[in-house]
Amino acid sequence: MELLNAKHRDYKTRNILTTAERIQVIKAYKRMPNYQRLASTFGCSAKQIKNIISNKDQLLRHYDSVRANKLTDEVTNRRQEKIDFLGKVVYEFLLRALYLRMPIGTTIIRQKAFEVKEAIAIENFSPNNVWLRDFKATYNRLDLASMMEHLPSDMDQRRSLKCIDIIEYVSEQEREERRKILTMTKDENCNSVWESDADGSNSSCSYEHTMTNSDTDMKSNDDDSVVGKNIEPIVVNLASDDEEEGSDDVSLAKAKSINTPANQSISTQKPITLPPFPDIHSYPEALRHLRVLEDFAMIEENYRAIGLITQLEQIFKNPPKLKSLTH
């Protein structure tokens, strides 16, 4: 009896599912209400599956709350990034206005800030006294005399006062600054490695070069060894029950790959076909796609696109009501 218990303990699954995997279990249970099969699919015990299903309401509420808080933080951070960018554009306008000997005052600064705000579509923002005070504090209290003395040497090439031209110039400057920082970081990492190795024969830079030359020879061997090790993350989408049917098959296939043995042949695995891009049937679905586009535009710092996407988002949030046709 003790031998059987010991044997049972040896084979007892101790894999603890993550929150995302637990949500995936809840979705999969609707299509396959079997604890043992789900346990085999997700690589855990049937008891854990049963506990997840028993507490599914609490798990779903917690997951939705976390998603909502994360979305709120992302929106807040994105809005602050836009406000910071607005300040840079307004400051660039002031430099150009000083170079052209134009009069500058609080009214002009606010007018330009409002123009930039409309161009990049910042919601619930107004260039009020609080913003003006923060703007002055950020840029050395806007000492116009000092700014005039220290104008950049290339101001003759920055004469345009059009809002869109200034936005594009500042965006390009930020991209260039990021490229410089990235280059400096790479150089510092390589220098630190070379300094740590007296002869440099064991440095990561030379190692990368060696690995690059030998990648072709090692490819065939690597393909046999990585089967079952590269596991894609499980994607969770609680948007609606209608969208679950198309995504559950792919998610279950990903979960099954967890238990794939390392020595299994590639030919025995069936390729996973991703579902086609879903059709959009409602405004909430369209808004979710717009947020993905806006995130991409923020990464690329394409503020013209961000402004257009934000305007379209407002239209989708308040869609026109179609009048019913009467015959």
Tell me what you see in this structure:
Pfam families: CENP-B_N (PF04218). The protein has 327 residues and is mainly α. Among the domains are: 54 residues; 108 residues; 35 residues. 66% of the residues lie in helices and 0% in strands. It has 13 helices and no strands. The relative contact order is 0.09. The C terminus is likely disordered.
How many DSSP H or I helices?
A: 13
Which structural class matches the secondary elements?
Answer: mainly alpha
Query: How is the main sheet built?
Result: none
- Please state roughly what percent of the residues sit in beta strands, choosing from under 5%, 5-15%, 15-25%, 25-35%, 35-45% or over 45%: under 5%
- Rounded mean pLDDT score: 76
Question: What would you call the shape?
Answer: elongated
Low-confidence stretches: 206-214, 218-247, 260-267, 323-327
Cα radius of gyration in angstroms: 29 Å
Percentage of helical residues? Answer: 55-70%
Terminal Cα separation, in Å?
82 Å
The arrangement of helices and strands along the chain is HHHHHHHHHHHHH
How many beta-strand runs?
0
